[in-house]
Design a protein that fits this description.
With 178 residues, the protein is mainly alpha-helical. The protein contains five helices and no strands.
């Protein structure tokens, strides 16, 4: 199940990046092509990833209860991964509510709350990706994160900057036209 989850993770990253890059161009006014197919594919993959994550978390909680030794302080990274995933799910719901309206060129409203939730989504996804990089690499047989850590942080930072900038530009454009 963990190998399947790792494969889902890679597929989610690919579909997310394609969706986010093209949607960012659309938000800043460069592109006009809708990315609904990619968004739906990513949503389906995220749903499967979430189900597997919930199952593995429940199994871990059951094993912890049976052992009688939770070692919560020793498992903070485990819990950070789960909490960041939960935060991503909440913020994805806001993303879907805001952008899933079916309006092609302009949303009914993109206010400060919308902007904040979308920036929080980008930051939370970045935290979730970075905190889960090591287990994903391990599941593909890569034993050390060290050679890839700088690359992962660099590319996640660049992507996050692009996506946050696109939301800010869209917010400014939305009120400039209104």
């Amino acid at each position: 199940m963990r190998k399947l989850n790792a494969i889902l993770t890679v597929l989610i990253l690919v579909t997310f990046l394609v969706h986010a890059i093209f949607a960012s161009f659309q938000l800043i006014g460069v592109g006009s092509r809708s990315m609904k197919i990619m968004a739906r594919a990513a949503l389906t993959l995220v749903a499967a990833h979430t189900v597997i994550g919930v199952i593995t978390t429940v199994k871990t909680l059951i094993a912890t209860k049976r052992s009688g030794a939770p070692y919560f302080k020793h498992n903070l990274l485990f819990w950070a991964r789960r909490i960041s995933g939960f935060a991503v799910m909440i913020l994805l719901a806001f993303h879907f509510i805001i952008f899933g309206t079916g309006v092609k060129d302009r949303l009914p409203e993109f206010d400060v709350f919308s902007l904040i939730t979308q920036i929080a989504l980008v930051v939370t996804i970045a935290v979730h990706v970075v905190s889960n990089a090591k287990p994903v690499l391990i599941s593909f047989g890569i034993k050390s994160l060290k050679p890839y850590a700088g690359d992962i942080l660099f590319y996640v930072s660049i992507a996050s900057l692009l996506f946050i900038a696109a939301f800010i530009v869209y917010y400014i454009r939305w009120y400039a036209v209104a």
